[in-house]
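As noted in the main text, all predictions were made from sequence alone. Below is one such record, for FXL18 protein.
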Amino acid sequence: EAVSEEGEEESNGVNLMEFSDEILLHILSYVPCTDLVLNVRRTCRKLATLCLDKSLTHTVLLQKDYKVNKDKVKQLMRDIGKEIYQLNMAGCYWLPSSTIDHVTRCKNLVKLNLSGCHVTSLRLSKMLSTLQHLRSLAIDVNPGFDASQLSSECKATLSRVSELKQTLYTPSYGVVPCCTSLEKLLLYFEILDRSREGFMLSGQLMVGESNVPHYQNLRIFYARLAPGYVNQEVVRLYLAVLSDRTPENLHAFLISAPGSFAETGATKNLLDSMARNVRLDALQLPKAWINGSGLLQHLKFNNPFYFSFSRCTLSGGHLIQRVINGGKDLKSLTSLNLSGCVHCLAPESLFRKAEDDIDSSILESLVVSCSNLRHLNLSAAHHHSSESIGNHLCQLLSRLKHLLSLALPVCSITDVAVSVEKPPTTPNLVPQTFGRKVRIGIQTYPRNLGDQANQKIESSVFWALMGSLRFLETLEIIGSSFSSAMPRNEPAIRNSLPPCVRAQSVGDSEVAAISQLTYLQSLTLAQLPNILTGSGLVNIGLQCQHLRTLSLANLGMMGKVVYMSALMDMLKHCKCLRDLRLEQPYFCAGSQFFQALSHCSSLQRLCIVSRSGTLQSDAVMSFMANCLEVIMCHMFMGESLTVCKNLQQSIVRSFQAERPALNVVIFPLLHEDLTEVIRDVPMRHLDEITLFKSRVAEEPPNLWW
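Prediction:
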């Protein structure tokens, strides 16, 4: 009887193997390649054939397969090595350098990404000597790299490479002089000014490395500099050749440099040559190269798709006249970064204060001309709308129906009537010091989304904006004066600047408005002063079921985490959440918090930054035991060095064997050795989650695969 019931259920159900090959291949494309080859294909004959289909083995992505180990890579290369044409192992920091030896089985490789992997000069030489079809390469250049160890066969392969991404941790040309056919060159400068022993480093290259790079075929040049003068010295050596002869086919020239990066005679000659000889599609320059110069007036553009004027003093008048050609059609532009460009929405900057109202006509010209924008960054500036009806920044941005990512300052989303006519009363102002706590009255907020919608939809311009950008995937709302407590190469910041006066009314109802973004995948909220309960976070957890990345910093009162209860309720609904970053003074990472966080079954990376924050070691250990996918745990709190070290060692001892990619850093936030600890964090985690920054339009879209 039981058998007959089983047979009846089977006949009425759907058998996966009855689907067409096309449908099955589409389903299998979502399964990691290591699982397909090493597990799934062993289940039955049909899947054994499908799992080796060229559409599934042509491109192998291991860059976030945190469960892969050396043995799995070895078996994978042995089984399908000859079928792999594109291999991405970026950020596989946990794999031993000997793993790279197995890549030699992939004789037909065309694209290879080894950024973040441990590769010596000799291993690189041996591997590249066998990859005669390679055309795209990404590697790291670490201390000890010696180009003289590269064999003639290796150099022959490099001479055919047309795309190179090189991350430099030591002053070097790397393999650039060997790549005589370069069309795309991406350089990431991560050189520290001091060695581990405390010696100052020099940016001068060794005499043996003074080979001249070959840029004659270059189409894309991109350089991103970490803070430090050595990085600036080295990038100037790379640019020296460009200043002598600018490639005729150059169409993208991008340099991202923090702080001050002065223009020299050589760089001025380079820019003058570019103005005469090339037409660009993408441009980003250090602020000192643009500020006060007439460069933009002379540069020519073809069909630009990316502009970044981050931290420049470019005025809105210059932006419209010199970049957008007086408001002409610029539908080719898909990504625009105006982060920290404080005067970009004002007609001129000479006598203007950063807090003055914007000129809505400039923003309107921008929106009309660049109607196909998909990525827009207006953060780190005071963009205050005037009282003119229909000209609020949020109302104008709502016309950009193709936006996928957006970054705005907190003060730009507030209703003018609220911020101007009804400023917050004194009891509701947020204390700006970390000292004596001040008791404040708690306002009553509607608890469910329907009540909030009825209350806000007619009056709130931000609610209307969120309703019009239904396909937005990334949203950042960051206070214009916010700075993280944990900068890159400096001691932790102990004091923060107060939020903008216009931002004082932004709180729970604005956060609730974000819950309209059904397809939201990444959310950053920083320095929202009027968060009183955090009720809007619960709405986001319920409605934004695709949320994968969440970053919250300095919400509400600075002396107390007022949104803790709402955050814990929110986390219970975030089944797809993979990355969580929290930065808040006095944060208590206790058992209740970690119990709520344990509901995030997909969580992989956790970072908590909290001045005077506390943690419960037992709760952390229990969380790590329950959440099997977590491979990164970074906590920078107020606990003692002994407590932090003991907990870190316990986590590593208990879970490292089962999780090869596990990276744990637990350390006092205000300890003098924090910068030394930070330098050992894998670049993937440091760049993507541990350090706070705006990531919208940070780079051109699809810069690398």
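The radius of gyration is 27 Å. Residues 1-9, 206-210, 420-447 have pLDDT under 50 and may be disordered. These features were considered when defining construct boundaries for the mutagenesis experiments described in Section 2.9.
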